[in-house]
Design goal:
Length: 428
């Protein structure tokens, strides 16, 4: 798990396994005034989904925060799942003590024992008295707790401005929360709060990363995959289903549209202009996806294109390909280096699947030298003169199979209500 960077640098222990509770903080969307309520509810729904496999854990919500009381469920495992919820900026493992001075001090001592800060670590206690009937004020508590702790740990150095270790105490009626570590969350916007887009999902490394990046910005995505049976195998199809399943861990549920592309693709092979095939194929994909987008109420198309990566991703190719749709074409990876994309795909868990060697329809009939500078007028002319071209695109749309994928492995028929919208809101 990725822990606080300072913690790693200091080489000290983590408080995670000592935690009774996880405190989740919301990300940047908290700035967005009137949408805030809706956004927080969406994060809650998503958190609830992630916590489902841990039945003893209990959720509660407060302004700008969610608390997950563990009741014996594994803190580390849960934190790892929850840090992937879009809209969560950070997570702190929290020790809960009774709001009695002696209990707070004992728990703080134990906290330090577990963290075992090395000699020379700079330190401060930061108490906040939320419950005004507690007999000691915040500033007084800083002293009352830090003095005995410093006596027990002579290696600690006080630094009230920017300490490496800040022990936070929130004194509330009934219980006091003690915490210091912060685990970085993925941040971004809660899922689906910025609309819906269709994502072109191939079996490669890039497009699953594009999907994750889009979801992180609050876009709901529906995946569209083109296959050319019998030229592409059942294994290639399964690979895409498996990739969508990894993505569903972040989305809760995800739709995958499988488009039969053989007829469209083979119609390009007889025209004697092999160097234009990729351009024609990509435009056909966009046209079909645009129709699916209209049907599904999506307002954009996302691809895994990255500038200059291959012939179809030169600026000139992007220009000619992009004109096949009137929808905004989003390319979240367009300015990223391949190494950065690979790193992200490893982090989100799609890399190992992506590198499996099954063929994609785009690797079939690939010309030796695809054009890097297609001419729009020539392409449009070819498309206009292809017999029955439009009907073939229609057939591909009608032949599209849609499956709904969840992290739990069951492919459900599309008419099932997605888990997210089916959830009740009265959990608290
Ligand atoms: P790689 O990691 O090998 O680059 P890729 O998936 O990015 O894999 P490209 O040939 O670079 O493959 O394709 C560019 C984009 O076109 C993809 O990111 C994807 O969005 C879309 N695409 C390509 N092939 C398909 C396909 N068979 N079905 C759906 N979308 C596809
Ligand atoms: Mg690519």
């Amino acid at each position: 798990m990725r822990e606080n960077r300072t913690e790693a640098a200091e080489g000290r222990g983590s408080s995670i396994e000592y935690a009774d509770m996880l405190l989740l903080r919301f990300g940047e969307f908290t700035l967005k005034g009137k949408n805030r309520n809706r956004f927080e509810k969406t994060v809650l729904r998503h958190v609830k989904e992630m916590v489902k496999p841990y039945p003893k854990a209990v959720l509660s919500k407060e302004f700008g925060r969610i608390y997950v009381t563990l009741n014996g469920e594994p803190a580390g495992e849960l934190a790892e799942a929850l840090r992937n919820v879009f809209g969560i900026a950070s997570i702190s493992p929290v020790k809960v003590s009774r709001s009695e001075f002696d209990d707070i001090l004992a728990a703080s001592r134990r906290f330090l024992e577990i963290i075992a800060p090395p000699q020379g670590t700079t330190f401060k206690v930061n108490a906040r008295r939320v419950w005004k009937d507690f007999p000691h004020g915040s500033i007084e508590m800083n002293k009352l707790i830090s003095t005995p702790l410093l006596q027990g740990y002579p290696g600690l150095l006080v630094d009230v401005k920017s300490p490496e270790l800040e022990l936070k105490l929130e004194i509330r009626e009934g219980s006091t929360y003690i915490f210091c570590d912060q685990i970085e969350g993925v941040g971004g916007f809660p899922l689906g709060t910025n609309g819906k887009a269709m994502l072109l999902l191939s079996g490669g490394i890039d497009s699953p990363v594009a999907a994750w990046s889009s979801m992180r910005r609050g876009l709901e995505v529906e995946c569209v995959h083109f296959y050319s049976y019998p030229y592409t195998s059942e294994l290639a199809r399964q690979k895409v289903v498996d990739l969508a399943r990894v993505l569903s861990r972040y989305a809760g549920v995800i739709k995958l549209h499988l488009v039969p592309f053989t007829e469209v693709q083979t119609s390009f092979t007889g025209i004697g202009q092999d160097n234009l095939i990729i351009t024609l194929m990509r435009r056909a994909m966009l046209r079909i996806t645009t129709r699916l987008a209209e049907r599904e109420g999506a307002l954009a198309v996302v691809t895994g294109d990255s500038l200059g990566q291959v012939a179809s991703q030169t600026l000139s190719s992007m220009n000619v390909i992009g004109r096949a749709t009137a929808l905004p074409l989003l390319r979240p990876l367009v300015m990223m280096d391949k190494s950065e994309i690979v790193e992200l795909s490893q982090r989100i868990g799609t890399y190992d699947l992506s590198i499996l060697p099954y063929e994609d329809c785009c690797t079939l009939f690939v010309p030796k030298s695809p054009t890097t500078n297609p001419n729009l007028r020539i392409i449009e002319k070819i498309e206009a003169t292809l017999p029955g071209y439009s009907a073939r695109l229609d057939e591909a749309v009608t032949g599209t199979e849609t499956i709904t994928i969840t992290p739990y492995g069951d492919e459900k028929p599309q008419d099932l209500v997605p888990a997210q919208s089916g959830l009740q809101e009265e959990w608290f």
